[in-house]
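During the reporting period the student researcher (J.K.) took over the structure-prediction task from the postdoctoral fellow and processed the backlog of single-chain submissions. One of the processed entries is reproduced below for the supervisory committee.
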Amino acid sequence: MTAVPHAIGALPAGSGALALDTYELTKRFGAFTAMDKVTMRVEPGTVHALLGENGAGKSTLVKCVAGFQRAEEGSILIDGREQDIANPIVARALGIGMVYQHFTLAPGMTVAENLLLAGGKTPALIDWKTKRAELKAFLATTPFSLDLDVRPSELAAGEKQKLELLKQLYLKPRLLILDEPTSVLTPQEADEVLGHVREFARSGLCTVLIITHKFREVMAYADSVTVLRRGKAVHHCRVADTSPAQLAEAMMGGEDAAVAAPASSPVVRKPVAHAAPVALKVEGLKAQGDRGTLALHDLSLSVRAGEILGVAGVSGNGQRELVEALVGQRPRLAGRVTVMSQPYNARRAENRSLKVRSLPEEPLRNACVGDLSVAENMALRDFDRAPLSRGGVLNFPYWRSRAREWIAEYGVKTQGEGAPIRSLSGGNVQRAVLARELAGDINVLIAANPVFGLDFAAVAEIHARIVQVREKGGAVLLVSEDLDELLELADRIVVMSEGKIVFETPAAGAERHVIGAHMGGGHH
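J.K. obtained the following structure tokens:
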């Protein structure tokens, strides 16, 4: 690649961390101002966190820097020189790389092919032998091991996230933007990823701008932080000079801050009665993974009425297959599942008679029909039962009025119950699914990463509703890649590793590092 002459004002194609400044950057969508005169300084070779609730303008800001959107006013300076970043290609040429919260992998291609594609300049003929050796050597410089021959469709969310990050690191960016990179990672993986990224910045090769809403990540890995609220930059400081409480106050705007900062005293709950009946029992469950190997090996667990059992584990250790085998999306090769001592094969009629509900991961893909309206999605569970249907005639006005009640009760932000559900933000899709799944009596609730990628107002609300199911005597199987979430909500925690349950502990006295060691299994 030849360096562009300086006369054009482009940067020399060099290496080394870039400084980023935004000056009064403003972006409007129609009448809505998503970003309002944001001025921010990111020092070269630092990790700079961008903190704020969903909708605060974080994504808009970084999309302007990465060339995916253009601001109407203000300017972006790279190493002190104003740049018109008209599109992602210009950004890439300046040395800016971005990892999204939503995956951009080519599903039909292998990990190796995805890494090579990332460069954008792929020769017609690829010398795979040399390239594989190069990729292997590159992977050896990172804390991740991914199988180069696997396709993304076979990867769990956490592994996809690592691949997205590797794709960018492979291109040696000088400014790396990460959009909520750990929302699908376990604490151990998150520490690996953020630790690696921080070293990368400290080496002086790269500046990192990270979007997050997790205070722990800001405090542990960032050098400086900018807090956005309703499109404005309301707070800038060095991490050394702040605390989670101060950041929460800046994020929420004072009055709600006490609610927002993670509570130091967990919810006081009465212990599960020893005599409580077993509501969900799984014995000797076996199921295949997507690649024909066994994903679940003789897995057994039980959850009692009025208990939350947390399932911890590193992404890709059979959790997804367990949930799919339980809810009927994956065949069971062996084993039995009973609910309230009755055989449970996840048929729709059994879900109704045994009162089994589920909150799956990626609800838009797994629990909704994107083109149908919010009201129709809310009726998926019982559209053919009274009062939604009478004598075989579907009662649409009732669907709509119930949907309006649920939208109000669950705070679903939508243009109305007739809007297609795919038009809602992630948090609102999850709220809509919650309303449907939590209606009526529940014996068993199966929840998989139920707050994936949501802001903490939504997280607190969804957690409260899950605890409510427990308080009413329901059994909850909570599968989560966020150990903090399990420690906060569960009564008991089991750890999955390589398709088996390898450890069990009451949540009350559980120690993170002990759970972490079992989560790592034989991989470390």
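The committee noted the following: The two ends are 39 Å apart (CA to CA).
J.K. will present the remaining backlog at the next meeting.
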